[in-house]
Design brief:
Strand order of the largest sheet: 1-2
Number of helices: 5
Strand content: 5-15%
Distance between the termini: 28 Å
Helix content: 25-40%
Shape: globular
Length: 119
């Protein structure tokens, strides 16, 4: 169960949908979600911007053009964007988050897409 900042119970349908796609390695399924259908606040909590597949490929192309080895994302939150970028582009992507509310399972509003390296 998820709770908002006021301690009120929130619907976790959105998070369950994301987790279902993630568990099945369906990154395109996540990209196809209409975040306006769900509570946009929950969507923004997981990922500040919802990219398209084309935008992820554009980022990947820039990384390769600059002859970089990959991406390190500092302040990645739950790592959803980083996971999507790695899955879509096959780039080496790592996320770093020091805010322990993302990793502390007892935090009632925490949500974690993964607890390991993104790729």
């Amino acid at each position: 169960m998820l709770f908002n900042m006021n301690g009120q119970e929130e619907d976790n349908t959105f998070e369950n949908t994301i987790l279902s796609f993630y568990i099945h390695n369906d990154w395109r399924g996540i990209l196809s979600i209409d975040i306006n259908y769900y509570n946009i606040t929950n969507a923004r909590r997981l990922m500040w911007a919802w990219p398209s597949e084309e935008e992820l490929h554009f980022i990947g192309k820039l990384i390769l053009e600059k002859k970089l080895n990959g991406v390190v994302s500092v302040g990645c939150g739950c790592g959803l964007f980083e996971w999507l970028l790695g899955q879509c582009t096959s780039l080496n992507v790592r996320g770093i988050e020091i805010n322990d509310s993302w990793w502390n399972k007892t935090q009632k509003d925490s949500f974690l897409v993964h607890g390991r390296d993104v790729r």
